[in-house]
Structures are given as C-alpha cells and as structure tokens.
Amino acid sequence: MQSKRSRLDRFISRHIQIPKKQVRLLLAQGRVKVDGVIARDIDLQIDQFNHIICDGLVLQQRQARYIMLNKPVGVVCATKDDKHRTVIDLINEAVNDAPNSNQSNSESSNTDDLHIVGRLDLNTSGLVLLTNDSQWSKGIMSPDSKVDKIYVVTLKNPIDERYIQAFEEGFYFAYEDITTLPAKLEIISSHCALVTLQEGRYHQIKRMFGRFRNPVIGLHRLSVGDIRLDESLLPGQSRQLTATEMMSVGGIPGNN
Ligand code: URA
User: Fold this and answer.
1) Where in the chain is the domain with CATH 3.10.290.10?
2) Could you tell me which CATH number the domain at 66-248 has?
3) Does the annotation count 133 as an active-site position?
4) Which CATH number is 6-60 given?
C-alpha cells in the first residue's frame, strides 16, 4: 500500500504519464486542485488521502478509514481464510446488513484496502483496529511508540502476587532471543487479571502465564492506547473511530 508522502508534480507526472515540465505548466495555469484548492506549488507534499483533480479528472480520492471491531472468539485476524470467518468478513457482513445498504462498491464500504493493526489469536476476543492508513498503523505498532494494550485474562488456576513481579521483570523467549518488556499485571480475582503490554509477541500472554503452568482460558482485549472497546458493540459489531479516538494513538496521520 502506498503510504509515503510524495511531491505533487511527481505524483501527477506518474499518474497521467506526462513529463514533469508539462506538469509545471498545468500547475502554473491553475488546472490542478488539491482538496478543493488550486495548487500551484510543485513541491507540495501530498499523501495517499489528498483529493487530487486535474482538469476536472479525479486522480485520487481515497478516504482514510479507521475502524474498531469487537472480535468474537473463533474469528480469525486475517483478510482471507479457508476455514474460519475473518474480521474482514464481519465488516463486509455489517455493511451488507445495514438498512438501505446499496453501497457495495462505494468507497465507504470497500474493505479491499483495509489492514489489521495488531492481530489477536483465533480464541482471543475484543478490540481489533483496522485501517487503510499505513502511516497511522505504523505509529501504533512501532516498538518505539510504546502503546499500552490492556487485556482481561481468565486463568485455569489461581494467581498470586508472584506473577506481578515476574511480569514486571520480563520473560526470556528463546525462540525470538528477546526478553519481554516490563508488563503490568493487576490481580482482579483469584482467576482473573488485567495485563498491560506494550508489545505484541506471538501468543505473548499465553506464553507468559505458561511459565507458571497456568493455562489461559479466556483472553479479551479492552483497549489500545486511549482507544477503549465501545461497550455498546456486541461481538462481531464494528464502527468507525471518532476523530478524537483516531488522533489519540499513533500520532496525527501524515506527521510520522
Ligand atoms: N497474547 C496472546 O497470547 N494472544 C493474543 O491474542 C494477544 C496477546
């Protein structure tokens, strides 16, 4: 997916296959609009979501999309899967089931360019973010961003205070040859804890509790950064993020 910013003259030259010299002329003549405003600056930086028109011809009009989904257990975090329903299937089903839905080809219902921001396992439920804005997702997923992800964990066996320190100290994972970052564990009850991670290693929470030979029997993601799973969303339901939610994690799109 195109994610980087590029110069307006380069974009037009590539898009309509004309030399940059000719693009300069188009710009000087005021025949190009970016987001509704006549653009004359060849150096103008544009991204994948600027609306660009040249001589009335739309060259680009992608809309940035930011979605939260309440993923049920048994649905796979993938765009395609032969065996299980995917998170993308759920979003498509929601669009098709919407009243007055006759928009299968419209921009707002197109799921082709969506990707998942931090996968959950098949048997994990809760908050999954999807977007077509790869700069935004990079801002969330980058290890430097240190975005908190909070999970409710239900265990087979009782937990105790020893877990808190072990999670804080980190666990050595030989396969990846890494030690996990300090994680916060809060005991909610004898068999239930809240765990806050700033990374997302393969089966990370299950492997951490595995060190105590304590199987995870329920795992649910409550939040990613300041985005909390909307309690009004039933399992399988999704909605667009509000602007405040979107801007609360990963930085302001385009500023990364
Ligand atoms: N840790 C896991 O083990 N699984 C998940 O889905 C998320 C975190």
Assistant:
1) 6-60
2) 3.30.2350.10
3) no
4) 3.10.290.10
CB neighbour list of residue 221: distance below 8 Å, 6 or more residues apart: 120, 124, 125, 126, 127, 128, 149, 150, 151, 229
Catalytic pick from 81, 113, 121, 230?
121
Nearest CA to ligand 1 atom 3: 203
Whose C-alpha lies nearest to ligand 1, atom 4? 203
Instruction: List Cα–Cα distances, 234 to 71, 142, 239, in angstroms.
Output: 9, 29, 11
Q: How far is the centre of ligand 1, averaged over its atoms, from the C-alpha of 124 (Å)?
A: 7
Tens of pLDDT, residue by residue, the chain (256 residues): 445 688 999 999 999 999 999 999 999 999 999 999 999 998 999 998 999 999 999 999 888 999 999 999 999 999 999 999 999 999 988 777 766 655 444 555 678 889 999 999 999 999 999 999 998 999 999 888 899 999 999 999 999 999 999 999 999 999 999 999 999 999 999 999 999 999 999 999 999 999 999 999 999 999 999 999 999 999 999 999 999 999 998 655 545 4
Q: What is the dihedral of CA 155, 161, 164, 167, to 10 degrees?
A: -60
